[in-house]
Amino acid sequence: MTRVFVSRDMASVALGADDVARAFGDAGCEVVRTGSRGLFSIEPLVEVETDLGRIGFGPVGPGDVAAVLDGAHAARLGKVEDLPFFVGQRRFTFARCGVIDPLSLADYAAHGGWQGLGTARAQAVQQVVDTVKASGLRGRGGAGFPTGIKWQTVLDAPADEKFIVCNADEGDSGTFADRMLMEGDPFCLIEGMAIAAHAVGARHGYIYIRSEYPFAIATMRAAIAASAHIVAPFTLEVREGAGAYVCGEETALLDSIEGKRGQVRAKPPLPALQGLFGRPTVINNVLSLAAVPFILAQGADAYAAVGFGRSRGTMPVQLAGNVRHGGLYEVGFGITLGELVNDIGGGTSSGRPVRAVQVGGPLGAYFPPSMFHLPFDYEAFAAAGGLIGHAGITVFDDSVDMAHMARFAMEFCAAESCGKCTPCRIGSTRGVEIMDRIIGARDTSHPEDKGKVSTGSARTGEGYLDRALYSRAPNRIDVSIEAQTSLLRDLADTMKYGSLCALGGFTPYPVLSALDYFPEDFGASAPIKEAAE
Amino acid sequence: MSFNRETDHGTPPAIATGKNVTLTIDGQSVTLPEGTSIMRAASLTGGSIPKLCATDSVESFGSCRLCLVEVEGRNGYPASCTTPVADGMVVRTQTERLKQLRRGVMELYISDHPLDCLTCGANGDCELQDQAGAVGLRDVRYGYDGATNMGQAKDQSNPYFDFDPSKCIVCSRCVRACEEVQGTFALTIENMGFDSKVSASQGEDFLGSECVSCGACVQACPTASLIEKAVVEIGTPDRAVVTTCAYCGVGCTFRAEMRGEELVRMVPWKDGKANRGHSCVKGRFAWGYAQHQDRILNPMIRASVSEPWREVSWDEAIAHTASEFRRIQAKYGTRSIGGITSSRCTNEETFLVQKLIRQGFGNNNVDTCARVCHSPTGYGLSQTFGTSAGTQDFDSVMAADVILVIGANPTDGHPVFASRMKKRLRQGAKLIVIDPRRTDMVQSPHIAAEHHLPLRPGTNVAMLTAIAHVVVTEKLYDEAFIRERCDWDEFADWAEFVSEPARSPEAIEPLTGVKADEVRAAARLYATGGNGAIYYGLGVTEHSQGSSTVMAIANLAMATGNVGREGVGVNPLRGQNNVQGACDMGSFPHEFSGYRHVSDTATRSMFERAWGVALDAEPGLRIPNMLDAATDGTFKGLFVQGEDILQSDPNTHHVAAGLAAMECVVVQDLFLNETANYAHIFLPGSTFLEKDGTFTNAERRIQRVRKVMAPLNGYADWEIVQLVANALDLGWTYGHPSEIMDEIAALTPTFAGVHYDRLEAEGSLQWPANDAAPDGTPTMHIDGFVRGKGKFVVTDYVPTDEKTGPRFPLLLTTGRILSHYNVGAQTRRTANTAWHPEDRLEMHPSDADNRGLKDGDWVTLRSRAGETTLRALVTERVAPGVVYTTFHHPETQANVITTDYSDWATNCPEYKVTAVQVMASNGPSDWQQDYARQARNSRRIAPLEAAE
C-alpha cells in the first residue's frame, strides 16, 4: 500500500488538503496527516513515499490522485527539502513540522523527541538554566528578552508554587508560526515546557491559545493527553483566549487565565516574581519554548553557533501579505530583509513592485525597499526605528496608501486597547481622527489621490469608530496638514513614551515610519523627518 | 481645623521588611523602607508628582501615566506609582521632557471631558482640575468634535450619591476601592479601549446593583463622576472637624466636612485607627436624622400618657422632673426610682447619669442596654480572663491565620470591620463560621468559609464543647501555654469534662444538626492553623446560656494558646457606638466604673469621698427587675436616656405593662420613640454632632466626639443631666466634658491615663491606660491574664426551656441588616429606607411551601408571647426549621414575639431562640393596629398658645 503524506495544518486544509487526503484514502493509499512544510504556494501538498524518499507534488487537487501516484503529475516537486525555499533554511525548531504525524509519540521519539527533556532531567536545574543562557535564546514573542535570565529569576524566587505559561495568543497580522508548530509538532512545545518546569521547579503549566485556532487547541489537547505520562509529574492544560489582541501581552494574558478581564498589569512586579496567581511564572512564547528541546539535546553551542551579533540561533520568519512565496522560513539571524522579501518570498504576488513591508505585526514599522539591506537582528531593527517582533513580514505593492495604513495602525490600537492607560485608550481614537483630517485635507488638495485603493483593511466611512467619527467636521482647531501632522507626531510621542504596554507604545512605529518614509502619502511635498525621535 | 484635603501619598506604605534604601530624588537624598514607591517617597519628602489614578487607599495601578519620572540609567519614563525605590537610584520628577509628556497625557484627558468646571459640583475639589493646572495645560489641539464619552445619562438612583459617566476618567479608583477597601466587587470596567466605562454590577444602576453604598468609591473618585448629592446641593465644604461615628461599635472616625454651620458630608478619616479610612452606608451617609423634622426640640410634659404633650420651658421641665422624682421617693421609698444610661451617648454623659442615680437618687438602680446585648460578655470574659472586654485591636485581624466567626454577621452589623476581615481572608487566612444562617461571610465574592457549621439556634454550648472535645481528645491543645498561663488542675477538670463521649461531635450531631466530621475538621483547623482569632456577636450572648457560651469560647482560646498576642484572641463585636463605654462607666447596678463591685468598701469609700454622700452598698435593679417591680407596684419612676426599651427589649407586652404602671417616666431622646408613648416628661436630646465627649469602641479604644454645630435643642445631653442633678441640689459644676473625664480618670484605675489633651495629641487610647500601660493596651493579657491565671470553666449544655412543638414548630432568631441600626430610630429617618423599608421574615423555601406561602406574602408570626404580622422573604439563607427577622421597624415589633427567657447569669434576653408558628395573613394584626392607634394618640403635641 502506498503511503502518502498530506498536511492537516489549518492553512493547508483551507486550501483543500482534506479533500485531497480523502481522495488518496479512497484510492487505497495509507494517508499520514502531517503538519505543514510551510510553503503555501505548493499546498495542498502530497508527498509520496518511494524508494527515492518522499516525493512531493503540489499544489494538487482531489482529481490528481492517479497522476500523482503515477509519478507523472506536472506538479511533481521532487524531494521537498531540496526545493530552493527549503535548502537555505536551518530548521532547528521546525525540524519535524511537516514531516511527522503530529500526534504520533512513536514518530516524535523516532525524530529525536524527548532527548532534550531526558538531558535536562539528568542535570541539575541550574545547569539547565545555564544551558539556555549559553544558547543566547531570546524571547521570540517580540521583546527579545534573554530566556535563560528569565528562567533564572523564576528559579531563584522562593515560592510554594510556580507556573509555566506558554503564550500562544498569536495575534499579529501575518504571523502563523505558533499555530504551525502547535498543529505540526505539539510534543515539541510540551517538551520545551516540561524542560522549563524542571528548570525552575514548576508543577503545572498553561498554554493560552487564541480561540481563532481551533485546530491548534484540539491538537494541543490531544497531545497533552497522549504525553501526560512522559512529562509527569508536570501537568498541563490549554486555556482558550476570548478574542482580545491585548491578551497576547503577557500580563493581560495572566489576568485572562486568572478569569479576570484581560487588562495589562504594571511592571514591576515582574511576572517572573509575581505572575500567575501571584506566583513566580515563566511566561514564554511558543517559539521560545519550542526552541529549548533542540538546545538541550544538541547543546547550547550548536544553537548559538548560528546567528548575528547578539541575536543567536534561528528565527522562524513568516512571509505574508502580497508575496509570491508566502510561508514559514526558519533561518539564522543575519539574513537581510531584502533577501527574505525578494529572494525567498519572490516579490509580490501581484507582480507589481514592492513598496513597503511591515515587520513584526501591526505594531511594526513599515520599511521601504531602500531599507532592505537591514540584517534580521534585534539590535539592527531597533536602531532603524523598527522591531522584529514575532518575525512576521507583510508585503505591500505600490498600490498601497500609506496614510491609510497609518490610520489603520491607530484604528487597530483603538479597537484592541484594553482601556487601562490613557495614551492608548484616548490617544488611539484621537489618532484615527487626526488621520481622517490629514487624509481629508490631502484628498481635497490632491484630488488625483482620491479613492486610492489600499491593500490593508483600513476603510473610511465604515466600521469601528468610523460611523461615530467620520462625518464630524473639525472646527476651532488648525486642521491644516502641517498642524495635524505636527499634532500626530506629538501624539505619537505621548503614546510611545507614556503607554503602559507595547500596544499603545509601539503603535507609533507603523504611524511614524509611514509618515517618515512615505511623506507624499500624507500630502506633504517634501520629507518631514526632522521632528522624528 | 480649617478645610484642606488629607494628604494623599499616592500609594500605600510598603510592607515592612525592616530594610531601608537610600536614593536621590530631585537632588535630595532620601532614606526610606524598601518597597516604597517613588511617588510615595517623593510625597513624603515634600515633593509632588502629578497623579490621577493613584491614591494611597488602594494599590498602585499605573494607568493614568501622569506620574512618569526619569530614573538615571533606565530607559523610558517609569511610572513613579508602580516603581519601587532602590538603593542608589537617581530620580528626577520635574524636567522639561516630563512636562511635555504629562501635558500630552492631560491634553488627551481633557479632550474627552466636559469643560463645565464653573458649574460642576466638584469645582475646587477636583483632582483633574488641579492636575490640569499643575501640568500647565493651556490648549486642547484635538478640538471637541471627535469621539466622546460625554453626554451620557447620570445615574442618580442612589439616594446619597450620583454617578455621572460623562465626567469619568476611567482611572478605576472606584473599582479598586470597591475591591480592595470594601471587598464587595460591585463595580467593574465594562467594554474596552475608548468605550471603557464604570459599571455597577452587570450594567445595573447603583441602587439596584450589589453596591452597599459604603462610599469608598465616592471617596476615591478624583472628579465629579461619583459625588455626594449633598455636595452638589450645598457646595464644597470650607472646614472639617474630626469626630467619631455614633452608629455601631466599630467606632469609625470621620471628618465632618462643613460649610458654615451646615454639614456637607462625613468622610472617613484616614488616620482613624479603628476604620483606617473606611466607612459604611450608615456612618458615611445616614446622618440626615440629625436634622429630621421628627426631632423634638422643646421639652414637654403631661400629667398622663393619654393626654397630648405640652411644650414647656427647660426650667419648668427640669424642675418638674426633680420634683416628681423627689415626690415618688418620699411616697414609695428611695429605691422606687432608677434610670437607664445610653450606649449611644458619650462616656461622660453615661458617667453623669449613673452618678445622678447613685449620688442623687441614692440607690444603684441603674442599668443599660448592654443588659440586652453583651452583658454575658462582661460576665464570661471577666470570669475567665479577668476583663470585661475583647482582647485585641481591630488591626490584629490582619495577623490572623484562622478566623472563627460565631453568631455574628459582620458584613451587616460591623461592616467596616468586616471589610478588614475580608481583606485578610483574601490574603489567605482561613474562615470558620458557626451560624444558623448562611451569612455573607460564608460565601461572597472572593470569600468562602472553609467550614460553615449551621447549627440549630440554642445549641452553641454543645457545639463549642464538641469542638473542645476534638481539641482535647486529639491532643491539639497547647500544653506549654496552659501550664504557664492557666491553672493546670482546672484545665484537667475541664479536659475530662469535654472528653466525655457524650460531648463528642458525633454525640451532639442530633442536637445541632451539624455533621460531626465537619465539626471535627473545623476544630482541627482552629487548633492547628496558626494564629486563631475568634470574633463573636449577639448570636452568642442573647441566649439562656449566653454567659456559658462566652466562657466556652474563652476556654477554647486558652486551650489552644490563642490569647495574648497579635492575630489571636477573643473579640466581641459590640453593637452600639458606646456600649463598651457605657459598661466601663458603671452603668450596671452592681458595679462602679471600671467594673468594681458596689459592695467593695474601698472603692465605694473613694466615690463617697469624691461625691460627698453615702452610697448604697447593695446592687440595684436590672431593667427586667425594674419592670417586674413596677408591675408589682414598688418601682414608680424611671429616667431613660437615649434608649427605646419598649421596642428593643423582649416581650413588649410586659415592658409596656411595666412602664404603664409607673408614675413618672422621663425620656431624654432625639425623637418621640416608642418608650416615650409611656412617658410623662420628654427632654429633647442632642445628636453626636452637637456635643463634645468620647466614645469607646469594641476594641476598648477611647476616641473624641467633637461638636461641629450648636445643639438644636439648646443643650448637649451632659448639660441636661447636670441641670437635673442641680435641680436635685447636687451642685455639679462641669464646664466641659473634659472635666468629667478628669473625674472618671481620677476614680477609675483603668482610665487613669486618659485625658483630653492626650486624646487630642494621639487620636485615641485603648484602656487600660495608666501608669502600668502608659500608651494604652492594644492587646490584652500579653504576659499574663488580668485575673492572674486563666480560668477554665466547665460549661455544661443545658437546652433552653423555649422549645419547639406542634404549635410552634419553627425557631425564630432575630438580627440586623446593613442599612438599619437597631430599633431604627435614626436610620428609619434617613434615605436608608430605600434598601430596607420594612422588616421581613426570612424563611426557607421548604417551610414556605409547606404553608403555601410565597415570597412577599403577609404572614402572621406567633409565639407563646404574642403575634405580629409582616411579609415573608423566601430564601435559602436560613435553614429549614429556622426563620429570621430584623427588629428595625416599630410597625413590626418583633419583640412582641420574643420571650422572657434570659441568660442564667446576666438576664440577657434570649432573643435568638423563640419557638414560633408562621401562617398566612391578610395584613397587620389587631394588636398592630391598636398599637399604631395608641402610638399616634400618644405622640400628639398640644398646639402652643399664641405667645404674642
Explain how this protein is built.
Chain A: GO terms for molecular function: 4 iron, 4 sulfur cluster binding; FMN binding; metal ion binding; NADH dehydrogenase (ubiquinone) activity. Chain A: Its cofactor is FMN. The complex is a heterodimer of chains A (533) and B (948). Helix content of chain A is 40%, strand content 15%. Chain A has 533 residues and is an alpha/beta fold. Chain A folds into 4 domains: 3-83, 3-Layer(aba) Sandwich (Glutaredoxin); 105-304, NADH-ubiquinone oxidoreductase 51kDa subunit (Rossmann fold), CATH 3.40.50.11540; 307-397, Ubiquitin-like (UB roll) (Roll); 402-522, de novo design (two linked rop proteins). A 5-stranded mixed sheet of chain A has the order 2-1-3-4-5, covered by helices on one side. A 5-stranded mixed sheet of chain A has the order 13-12-16-14-15. The relative contact order of chain A is 0.10. In chain B, strands 13-12-27-26-25-14-15 form a 7-stranded mixed sheet. In chain B, strand 23 (591-592) and strand 24 form a beta hairpin. The two termini of chain B are 42 Å apart. Classes of the chains: A alpha/beta (533), B alpha/beta (948). At the A-B interface, helix 17, helix 18, helix 19 and helix 21 of A face helix 2 of B.
